[in-house]
C-alpha cells in the first residue's frame, strides 16, 4: 500500500512540475568590423504551434513597406499598391514562388505562405524595389536591437541549441546562417556581411534572375 501511494505521489509531482522557462541572450556582430548588427532576424531551430495571421506589404513611393516582414507559417499576406503607378510583384524563392502581374490597387486574393523559409520579393517594373518575408514555424524569433542584442525565450531542459541568424546583407541572403550553442550563457555571435551597396547591382541581379525564368 505504501509503495502504491509513493508511485501516485511521484506521478502527481511529475505532472505538476512545470517546464522551467529560461532565456537566451545573444549579441550579433559583423565579423569584418566587429560592430553590432541591428535588425538581424534571430530564431531557434524548433517547431512550435503557431497561429497564422493576415499581414501586408504595401507599395508606396516605389518601395516595399516594410522591407522585412516576419510571419508564422500558414499566414496570408496582402500586397496593396498605394502608388499612382502599377507594380508587378513576384518571388521565385523555394519557400514561396508567386507572380502578381501588373496591377494597381489591391489584388483580389492574398498570398498564402505555407512553408517556412526566406522569401525574396521584387518588382519587375521597378528595379530598386526589394523586400523579404521570413516565414517561421517557431515563436522563439525576433530582431536584434540597435546594440545587436536579442533575448529569446527557451527552456532550461532544451539542451544544445541551434540558432539561426538572417540579415539581408548576408552574402547568401536566401537562407540563414546557423550557430550551435552548448548552453544558455549569453554570448556574442559573429556573421559575415557584405558591404552596404553603393549601387543597385544586387537588385539588378534579382531582376536578371527573374527574366531568365
TrEMBL record:
Q: Does the keyword Nucleus apply?
A: no
InterPro entries for the chain: Cupredoxin, MauL
Instruction: Determine if Signal is one of this entry's keywords.
Output: yes
Which keywords accompany this UniProt record? Signal
According to the record, the signal peptide region is: 1-21
UniProt superkingdom? Bacteria
Q: What is this protein called?
A: Methylamine utilization protein
Which species is this record about? Marinobacter albus
